[in-house]
Design goal:
By secondary structure, the chain is of the alpha/beta class. The chain folds into two domains: about 250 residues, Aldolase class I (TIM Barrel, Alpha-Beta Barrel); about 70 residues, Arc Repressor Mutant, subunit A (Orthogonal Bundle). The chain is built from 14 helices and 15 strands. The strands form three sheets. The chain has a nine-stranded mixed sheet with strand order 7-8-6-5-4-3-2-1-9, sandwiched between helices. Strand 2, helix 2 and strand 3 form a beta-alpha-beta unit. Helix 1 packs across helix 10, helix 6 runs parallel beside helix 8 and helix 12 packs antiparallel against helix 13. The two termini are about 30 Å apart.
């Protein structure tokens, strides 16, 4: 089984926290759609005819596309690759794009999962982030999606915002639970270079949240969502039983996936490939048959480190049996040596050879990860 990611590089506005590749200029929209379909067809043999179990439209803002454009992309994928009988097909979307007519038309395309970028239910926080919608639109679009027939609805939230109190964050989480969505992704704000928030932080216009308050917000998030029946299957992702994101799990379980569009990444266990983060260069190269990507062949050390990074974040954890079988004694011994202090301190759990982070270990996951990564000679 494998996955497909489609990067739609268009946004109506730029959010102040976002560093993903995107453009607010829609002038090349038709050229992009043409090039995207050509790239899909060009790479028809890249997965060795593996079945596709998930398709994910990300961006950018995929919901700025017309329903007919989404459908035409899916038609090319269906005619080029072998899909499983019930693929998960996700569309990232913004609340202000999600009209009732758009949603009803979307149900006929095969899209069966919505990932809605709400981020907050407070209008002042939405304005701070330069989001286009307000809290009322956020609630309305989630309800309209259900009325249109979308049972599989995920929403995104951001915590750690400058000036965000614990009380305001609690209300965001409670509002998300009250909406009854099947999946919630909650991410701590990161100040990426090149974003408005990064510049504002460096200039002193805004201040970063304290570690103590960040931890309090994360603890409340986990407590409230688990109390409401959501399972924390990855550090930032929570789902009701049976509603895990199949596409995201493919990343964490190191399954193969193809990425189409500018800046999209691909992975086949042996190599990583990433497309150029430039719409102009992407269009020119696809049309001319030129190279629009870079690629690296993964060493055994790279593969081990990837396994550490992806697996420790999840409830699936790191398997001692898998380490021994796939990476052999040097890597398995190194892992056990570096993990032992964290196990003894209660930050990691060892359940019959399955290693996961404890509740307290979640708060120092970056430090644990840094120790577990293999950087020296074998």
């Amino acid at each position: 089984m494998a996955g497909i990611y489609i990067h739609i590089p268009f946004c109506k506005t730029r959010c102040h926290y976002c560093d993903f590749y995107k453009s607010t200029d829609f002038g090349a929209r038709n050229d992009f759609l043409s090039a995207l379909k050509k790239e899909i067809i060009q790479r028809k043999d890249a997965l060795n005819h593996a079945q596709i179990e998930s398709i994910y439209f990300g961006g950018g803002t995929p919901s700025v596309l017309k329903v007919s454009e989404i459908e035409s992309i899916l038609q090319v994928i269906r005619s080029t690759f072998r899909l499983c009988p019930d693929p998960e097909i996700t569309l990232e979307s913004n609340p202000d794009d999600m009209t009732a007519s758009f949603l009803h038309a979307l149900t006929h395309t095969g899209v069966n999962r919505l990932s809605i970028g709400i981020q907050s239910f407070h209008d002042d926080e939405l304005k701070l982030m330069n989001r286009r919608h307000d809290a009322a639109q956020a609630r309305k679009c989630v309800q309209q999606a259900l009325e249109a027939g979308f049972q599989n609805r995920s929403i995104d939230l951001i915590y750690g915002l400058p000036g965000q109190s614990l009380a305001k964050w609690k209300k965001n989480v409670e509002a998300a639970v009250d909406l009854g969505v099947s999946h919630i992704s909650a991410y701590h704000l990161t100040y990426h270079e090149g974003t408005v928030f990064y510049d504002d932080l460096k200039s002193g216009k805004i201040r970063e949240m304290t570690d103590e308050l960040s931890i309090s917000q994360f603890k409340w998030l986990r407590h409230q969502l688990m109390e409401a029946g959501y399972e924390p299957y990855e550090i930032s992702n929570f789902a009701r039983p049976g509603w895990y994101s199949r596409h995201n799990r493919a990343y964490w379980e190191q399954k193969s996936y193809l990425g189409f569009g500018p800046s999209a990444h691909s992975f086949d266990q042996r190599t990583r490939r990433w497309n150029v983060a430039s719409l102009g260069r992407y269009l020119e190269a696809v049309e001319s048959g030129g190279v629009f990507w870079e690629e690296e062949v993964l060493s055994r050390q790279d593969q081990y480190n990837d396994y550490m990074i992806t697996s420790l974040r999840t409830i699936r954890g790191i398997s001692r049996e898998y380490l021994d079988a796939v990476f052999g004694a040097p890597y398995a011994c190194y892992f056990r040596q570096e993990a032992r202090p964290f196990i003894d301190a209660g930050y990691m759990l060892d359940d019959q050879g399955i290693y996961t982070l404890s509740e307290e270990g979640l708060f120092i996951s970056d430090r644990i990860m840094e120790k577990l990564l293999f950087t020296g000679p074998v």
